[in-house]
Amino acid sequence: MNQEVIGEAAMNLKTEEKDKTVIKTGTKNKIKNEKESINCERSLIIIKPDGVKKKAVGDIISRFENAGLEIERIRVLEIDESIAHSHYFEHKGKPYFEKLISYMTSGPSIVMIIKGENAISKARELMGPTDPLKAQKGTIRSDYGSDITINSIHGSDCSESAKREINIFFGNYL
Ligand code: CMP
């Protein structure tokens, strides 16, 4: 089978099947092209201190895995002021900034890199909007969040932010 025929057939298969099909043909380049074509992304996810205190970690991780996303790296971390300031620099000066920093440094968080097809938008769908009171039932923030600041989880909002945030928490990883 030539590469064009393989490519056309693979379009009709699910992601996992696509990868298997390409692996059978045996070249690294074909695998790379296939992975690029499914818009593989990374997002930086933080299960915030209230999410950890509410024992929501297992459930939240399962939701990402059940959506087909992979946990590529994970750590438990007490975020300090300096890291919180770097991560949330865009919010500096906002009326809620001090509350946000003191909340984010109030106890352990789970910080992870998730990876997979459209990981950023999939994660945002699972999380729901920033304000848990406006979030649809069944989203993470609706199920666990308390208010617009204490909202249980953070996820990157675009690929540039994901890169910046991942490098803050995982030492120039990207
Ligand atoms: P997050 O998705 O981590 O990104 C920035 C955080 O700031 C947000 O979740 C909330 O915790 C907090 N935040 C954003 N907007 C507001 C707001 N209008 N009032 C209070 N807190 C906010």
Descriptive keywords:
174 residues; 16% strand; single chain; four-stranded antiparallel β-sheet; binds adenosine-3',5'-cyclic-monophosphate; 10 helices; Alpha-Beta Plaits; 2 domains; disordered N terminus
CATH architecture of the largest domain: 2-Layer Sandwich
The level of helicity is: 40-55%
CATH fold name of the largest domain? Alpha-Beta Plaits
Number of helices: 10
The bound ligands are: adenosine-3',5'-cyclic-monophosphate
Beta strand count: 4
What is the topological layout?
Elements: H1 3-11, H2 15-25, H3 28-37, E1 40-47, H4 49-53, H5 57-66, E2 70-77, H6 81-87, H7 97-104, E3 109-117, H8 119-127, H9 140-144, E4 153-155, H10 159-169
Antiparallel strand pairs: 1-3, 1-4, 2-3
Bound molecules: adenosine-3',5'-cyclic-monophosphate.
Detailed description of the structure:
With 174 residues, this protein is α+β, with helices and mostly antiparallel strands. It folds into two domains: 35 residues, no CATH class; 130 residues, Nucleoside diphosphate kinase-like domain (Alpha-Beta Plaits). The chain is built from ten helices and four strands, in the order αααβααβααβααβα. It has a four-stranded antiparallel sheet. α2 packs antiparallel against α3. The radius of gyration is 18 Å and the shape is globular. The two termini are 36 Å apart. The N terminus is likely disordered. The structure holds adenosine-3',5'-cyclic-monophosphate.
